[in-house]
Structure formats: C-alpha cells, structure tokens
Amino acid sequence: MHDASAFTVALIGNIAVFGGNLFGIAMARRCDRIGYLKFFRQGSLALVVLTLLFGFFPGSMAATVLFLLFIYNGASGLLAGPLLMMRGAAAAKLAPDEGGEPYVAAYSLILRLFSFAGSLAASRLFLFCQNWAGGGIPEAFAAYFKAAGIIGIILFLPLYNRGSALLDKKQPSTNT
Predict the structure, then answer these.
(1) How many CB atoms within 10 Å of residue 25?
(2) DSSP single-letter state for residue 172
(3) Which of 41, 109, 173, 176 is deepest in the core (most CB within 10 A)?
(4) Phi, psi of 74, rounded to the nearest 5 degrees
(5) What Å distances lie between residue 150 and 50, 65, 145, CA to CA?
C-alpha cells in the first residue's frame, strides 16, 4: 500500500465493487452447478489463501492488488461479494416455502450482529498485533492478516469435515 497512490487504491476498490457484481453472475452459475456447500468451501479456502498471501507478502504490490480485487472490504470484492450474496440465497433456500420470511429476516439480523461482533474482535486483534509489533503499523498489518488467515483456517475446519445433504445437492439449472 505504501507504494501505491490513493488514486490507485481507490480505483482498484471501485473495480472490485463493480466487478464483483458482474462476476457474481458467473459465481452464481458455478454455485448452481456444484451446490452451495462446495461453493462455500472453495470460496472460503480462496479467501483464507488470499488473506495469508497478503499477510506474508504485505509489501508486494501483486499481493495487495489480488487482496483488494478479490476481498476488498470483506463484502465487495470479486470473490467476497458473490459469496455474501450466495449466503443470502442459501438462507432463502433453507426457509420453508410458506412463512419463510421470518427465517430470512433472522438470518439477516444474525449476519449483521456477527459482522458487528467481528468488527469489534478485529479491532482488538489489530491492537494486539500492533502492541506485539512494537507499534509499527506495517508490521501490525502483516501480523493481523497472518492471524486472520490462521483463525479463518480454524473456523472453516467444520466446513471441510462434514457436509449437509441439503446444501450439498446440486441445484437445478434455471438457464433457458
């Protein structure tokens, strides 16, 4: 980030946001072909790998560009955005055909609450990393993304150990 201008970072961020919406169409088709759980497994693994790549090579412009394009702010990148949209689609699929609106609303509420809790935890983790790095911001960022990647691996282990019959089944194609 130190070698990039503010314009370059903003340009990459905007490309990630708008590109994520377009890329989401292709990602949704892939999700239809392979099923929700496999889609989340592959996408989650890619997010963790990109986070670790950014953590281990924080001064690399290539790692920074990849991170910004595919993850950006965790909800708008080429990969993170479509994953977030597909989570919402999975919530709607799991809801009963009739009277399912409360389930989808509960999913949205829980997602927002956990996002808020995650933000609080992330700020504490960054503060810990900054103290551990002796106050240096670049070192703290590298340590933060390494820690986040390791935490991501630990949190996603259940996703790889077992499946869900409902989420594993392939979805019928809606292409006409």
Answers:
(1) 10
(2) P
(3) 41
(4) 90, -5
(5) 12, 21, 9
Helix or strand holding residue 8 (H, E): helix 6-34
How large is the greatest C-alpha to C-alpha distance in the chain, in angstroms? 59
The answer to whether the CB of 139 falls within 8 A of the CB of 2 is: no
User: How far apart are the C-alpha atoms of 134 and 58, rounded to whole Å?
Assistant: 17
Sign of the dihedral defined by the CA atoms of residues 66, 63, 80, 39, in that order: positive
Which H or E element spans position 18?
Answer: helix 6-34
Contact 144, 55 (CB under 8 A): yes
Task: Check: CB of residue 138 under 8 Å from CB of residue 58.
Answer: yes
104-117 pLDDT, tens digit per residue, is 788 888 888 988 88
Say whether 119 sits in a helix, a strand or coil: helix
* Sign of the torsion angle spanned by Cα atoms 107, 112, 113, 119: positive
Tokens of residue 32, six digits: 């239809």
Distance of CA 138 to the CA centre of its chain: 22
Determine the 3-state secondary structure of 17 from DSSP.
Answer: helix
Listed residue (175, 148, 125) closest to 56, CA to CA? 148
Q: pTM of the entire structure? A: 0.69
